[in-house]
Design goal:
With about 575 residues, the chain is α/β, with parallel strands linked by helices. It is about 50% helix and about 15% strand. The protein contains 14 helices and 17 strands. A hairpin with a 2-residue loop joins strand 14 and strand 15. Helix 9 packs antiparallel against helix 10 and helix 12 packs antiparallel against helix 14. The two termini are about 95 Å apart. Pfam families: DUF3369 (PF11849), HATPase_c (PF02518), HisKA (PF00512), Response_reg (PF00072). It is an enzyme of class 2 (transferase). InterPro entries: CheY-like_superfamily, DUF3369, HATPase_C_sf, HATPase_dom, His_kinase_dom, HisK_dim/P_dom, HisK_dim/P_sf, Sensor_HK_Regulatory. This is histidine kinase.
């Protein structure tokens, strides 16, 4: 830039004020000419607008300007040179500010020493700037005027933004009235909105006194500035003037407009009272007061709406609680009915199984009894009556009748054992001793089939079990082996340890099990492919009951067979009693 292009300052500098302004505007000078920076600082060294001074930040290139803008998004005005690193560096920076940094608030004044490089009309139309000046026309007075106009524009945008933020807070609060914090959010919006309406930054509190509440009791719904920490406090300690003004407002029930304090009072239709106290370095004009009074008149409805919604939310919560309680009661009743239905369903199925089994297993002995009875009838008709033959036939009737009696007794016993509500009375049980007792009880039955019963105790085992119930399970296994083993076949019971558990295995050399038998071995009323070797009857419940009893003791009942004709081994595995010092699973 030539000497003719330098800034020309025609005004004499005034003395700096005795006290610097407490607030400042941030002004950026972005120019590659050091003289421009010095001249701008000199011309604006004592600048003040509405008691607010300026801070001048500088950058010597467009690149430095980008970094400066990123560090200071609150810049008020930028004095920007057009031609720096390139002929369009300043214009490119304008695009960066508006489109990349997304800063629409800052006011931009373009300054150029080469107007021909960027014609004024095209620049004003094509770029989002607020003023365009040649450096030669920016005297101190014109610079002051241009800066003041830009700052006023920035100030107006700030006020619009504050108003927008206040409205957003109120709208957001209205959309969340069912939230417990909606009253507080509305109060925060009131403070922000009043500050925007008055065009001042102010500290303040908004307090609420419930209808019929004590005169000294109130809640701070919101606070700003030095009072921000009081939000949510109930009857907080306030300094003397603030406390006096709040209590006077509740007593006088009207607004008070003082030099630097404004106290606003409103009463809702529900009887609640709200006091807003604002502290601002401004005396309100008549227009300001009228605007505030209109605004407060609308607030009464807003607060009542929030209160009504909160009451509705509480009523809904109580209703939902009652519905939930009733739903739980109905659910519990339905569960009880479903359980009873399932019990009845199982009982009915059990009854059907019993009837089917009885019809099948009692048919043969009844047929024998009927046949023998017919023979006796024929013998009675003879003359003379063959008494010995009749006596022999009666003896033949007694045997199937006794078999039927035993079968019925076994069915009743099995039905009782198969009941789901089996209660155990556990105690320390010597497994070997219990098995030996069961074997001794069954030796006569095995002897009739010329079978041998042996017991091998590989390792003594003590288990925690109900001796009566465990005996039933073992008897079912032993009797099952006797029933299906061939005449003269050996049956061996071994007691030891398997899988870190006490184990009782009963092995026979009977017909064994087919793959189909393995799959349905422990089901109720199951008939296997093998038949008892001496025509004994079977209810199909014994193994099912044994498995159920073993499971109640925390154990397992397993069966293994190499296949048909290879015999079967049943193994009962039970946890070892901890007191005996052995490991338990």
């Amino acid at each position: 830039m030539s000497g003719d292009d330098l800034l020309v300052f025609l005004d004499d500098a005034e003395e700096a004020p005795a006290t610097a302004p407490t607030k400042i505007w941030k002004i950026a000078v972005i120019d590659d000419e050091p003289a421009v920076h010095d001249g701008t600082r000199f011309a604006l060294y004592d600048y003040s607008l509405n008691g607010q001074g300026i801070e001048i930040l500088t950058a010597n290139s467009a690149e430095e300007g980008r970094r400066l803008i990123d560090r200071h998004p609150d810049l008020a005005v930028i004095l920007l040179d057009v031609v720096m690193e390139t002929d369009s560096a300043g214009l490119d920076l304008v695009e960066y500010i508006r489109n990349v940094a997304r800063n629409d608030m800052v006011r931009i004044i373009l300054r150029t020493g080469q107007p021909g490089q960027a014609p004024e009309r095209r620049v004003i139309v094509d770029y989002d700037i607020n003023d365009y000046k040649a450096k030669t026309e920016l005297t101190a007075d014109k610079l002051f005027t241009a800066l003041t106009a830009a700052l006023r524009s920035y100030q107006q945008l700030q006020r619009m933004e504050e108003t927008r933020r206040g409205l957003e807070i109120i709208i957001d609060a209205a959309a969340k009235l069912f939230d417990l914090k909606s009253m507080q959010r509305l109060a925060e919006g009131v403070l922000t909105q009043i500050g925007s309406l008055l065009k001042v930054e102010c500290a303040g509190i908004l307090v609420l006194r419930e209808a019929g509440g004590a005169a000294e009791t109130f809640t701070v719904l919101a606070g700003s500035g030095v009072y921000a920490g009081l939000t949510g406090a109930v009857t907080p300690p306030l300094n003397g003037d603030v406390s006096r003004l709040v209590h006077e407002a509740f007593a006088l029930r009207r607004h008070q407009f003082l030099d630097q304090q404004s106290v606003l009072y409103l009463r809702t239709a529900s009887g609640r009272e709200v006091v807003v106290l604002l502290e601002a370095q401004k005396t309100l004009s008549d227009t300001d007061r009228a605007l505030v009074e209109v605004f407060c008149g609308k607030l009464s409805i807003a607060f009542d709406n929030v209160i009504l919604y909160e009451q509705l939310a509480e009523a809904n919560a109580r209703l939902e609680q009652r519905v939930e309680e009733r739903t739980r009661e109905l659910t519990a009743a339905n569960e009880r009915l479903a359980l009873q239905r399932e019990i009845l369903k199982r009982s009915n199925a059990f009854k059907s199984d019993i009837l089917g089994m009885v019809a099948h297993d009692l048919k043969n002995p009844i047929s024998v009894i009927l046949g023998r009875s017919e023979i006796i009838g024929e013998l009675i008709d003879r003359d003379p009556v063959p008494v010995e033959m009749i006596r022999a036939q009666i003896g033949r009737i007694v045997e199937p009748a006794q078999a039927m009696t035993r079968m019925i007794e076994q069915l009743l016993k099995d039905a009782m054992n198969d009941h789901l509500d089996v209660r155990l009375r556990p105690e320390a049980v010597d497994l070997g001793g219990l098995v030996a007792d069961v074997i001794e009880d069954h030796r006569p039955g095995a002897a009739r089939k010329q079978q041998s019963l042996a017991i091998e105790i590989v390792e003594p085992m003590v288990v925690e079990a109900d001796p009566d119930r465990l005996r039933e399970a073992i008897e079912n296994i032993i009797s099952n082996a006797i029933k299906y083993s061939p005449i003269g076949g050996p049956i061996v019971a071994r007691i030891g340890r398997a899988d870190r558990m006490a184990a009782l295995s009963v092995a026979d050399r009977g017909p064994g099990l087919s793959p189909e038998d393995i799959g349905r071995l422990f089901g109720r009323f199951q008939r296997l492919s093998a038949k008892p070797s001496a025509g004994e009857s079977s209810t199909g419940l014994g193994l099912s009951i044994a498995k159920h009893i073993v499971a109640l003791h925390g154990g397992r009942l397993e069966a293994a067979s190499a296949g048909p004709g290879q015999g079967t081994t049943f193994t009962i595995k039970l946890p070892v009693r901890a007191e005996d010092g052995s490991d338990s699973e």
